Amino acid sequence: MKPSSIDPHLLERYFLDACSVAEAFEVEQWLASGEKEDADIALLCDIFDRIDIRNDAMADKAFERCADVLNIGAVRQGRSPLLTVLAVVAMAACFFLGVLLHRKEALVAPLHFTEVYAQRGSSEKVTLPDGSTIHLKSGSSLIYPSEFVGDTREVFLSGECYASIAKDRERPFIMTTRMMNVRVTGTEFNIKSFPEDSEAEVALVEGNVQLEGRRGGDTPLQSIQLAPGNVVKVDRNNGETRISEFNVNSYVSQQEGGDVFVFLDRRLCDIVSELSRRFDVSIVLHDKSLGEKRFYSSFVNGESLDQMLATFNADGSMVIREDAGVIRISKRGL
Fold first, then answer.
1. Residues 230, 203: contact at Cβ < 8 Å?
2. In terms of pLDDT, which residue wins out, 114 or 92?
3. What is the pLDDT of residue 178?
4. Of 3-7, 210-214, 235-239, 312-316, which has the strongest mean pLDDT?
5. Which pLDDT value is given to residue 126?
6. Is 60 exceeded by the pLDDT of residue 255?
7. What is the CA radius of gyration of the chain?
8. Which residues face 225 on adjacent strands?
């Protein structure tokens, strides 16, 4: 068997958060580089067995290190290099992502992971191994295992989806994003967590969810319990949360994946990002203060992009023009 292509001590220091920035970059390049040899898998198994995670804080730190590398927001349609690593060393990925943390005996056989990516301007419907359905929105990606093993059902999301989760009180379902974890046993909810957006959002339609978030570093966000009709927003910069209410009936149509747009107290900068993804067009805001404006809006009659932008500009405070295929929005008078 060929020796591993990476220094074992360096790899262990990385997962213990004890290496330099340059060393971390070297490890991350290695993790993202194609399929691994048997020696690489054996090395990861060995490190998994030897590292002693004695408390939740250490586990959270290990999660954060791997979350940066397994940045689901960077995956592409089809199998990315990171998915190859996940598939062949699932026990390591599961360990550092908090799946089966205390169930080593369940990690003997590697799992296979599937990645689904909804291209800009389109959507995808995914049926998970437990029968749950995920309506993946434009520009979003989902990673899930071939089967759910252990005490939880965990998937990884970058972007937005509407989820209808099969009931299983014995095995909670966890949807993990870079900003938060959404834990449920059986429910329907919509989640938005794009890396470029200023806020992450969860809207609960049916059942109950528990939101467990973190905002970088070692500062955890508070755990939040939602009731149907609640929407919570988590600010990406400072971790502040905002909870408001919405009309469930008018919101449910989003799961159909049609031309329905519902914006609940959304910042214009995030609305523009969503419109850009859904219509596959470049939209640029030229004034930061405009991006901070918030809107409650819904479009359910197949409105065009121009009609939507005109609605947001009902007070005439913006100048909207198209220049070489790019829609530019600026503050009137500038």
1. yes
2. 114
3. 77
4. 312-316
5. 95
6. no
7. 21
8. 210
- Would you list the DSSP string of 278-317? HHT-EEEE--HHHHT-EEEEEE-S---HHHHHHHHTTTS-
For tokens 């008078």, name the residue. Answer: 333
Give yes or no for a contact between 191 and 199, defined as CB atoms under 8 angstroms apart.
no
Cα–Cα dist 256/159, whole Å: 17
Which 3 state secondary structure label does DSSP give 157? strand
Under DSSP, is residue 228 helix (H, G, I), strand (E, B) or coil? coil
CATH of the structural domain 112-257, one choice from 2.40.50.320, 3.40.50.80, 2.60.120.1440, 3.40.50.300: 2.60.120.1440
**Cα 168 to Cα 132, 152, 183, 185, 187, distances in angstroms:** 11, 10, 12, 5, 10
For 11, phi then psi, to 5°, come to -65, -40
Task: State the residue for tokens 């954060």.
Answer: 64
Among the ranges given (82-91, 213-222, 300-309), the one the predictor scored with the smallest mean pLDDT: 82-91
CB-based contacts of 9: which residues, under 8 Å, 6+ apart? none
pTM attached to this predicted model: 0.63
More confidently predicted of 145 and 75? 145
Full DSSP string of 64-125: HHHHHHT-GGG--SS--HHHHHHHHTHHHHHHHTTTTTT-GGGGSSPP-EEEEE--TT--EE
DSSP state at residue 34: S
89, 97, 111: which is closest to 43 by C-alpha?
89
SS3 213: strand
Rounded mean pLDDT of 279-290? 91
Sequence spans of domains, the chain: 1-110, 112-257, 259-334
* Residue 64 structure tokens: 């954060």
Q: How far apart are CA 275 and CA 309, in angstroms?
A: 9
Candidates 3.55.50.30, 3.40.50.410, 3.90.1640.10, 3.40.47.10; CATH matching 259-334: 3.55.50.30
Distance between CA atoms of residues 309 and 286, nearest Å: 15
Cα distance between the two ends of the chain = 67
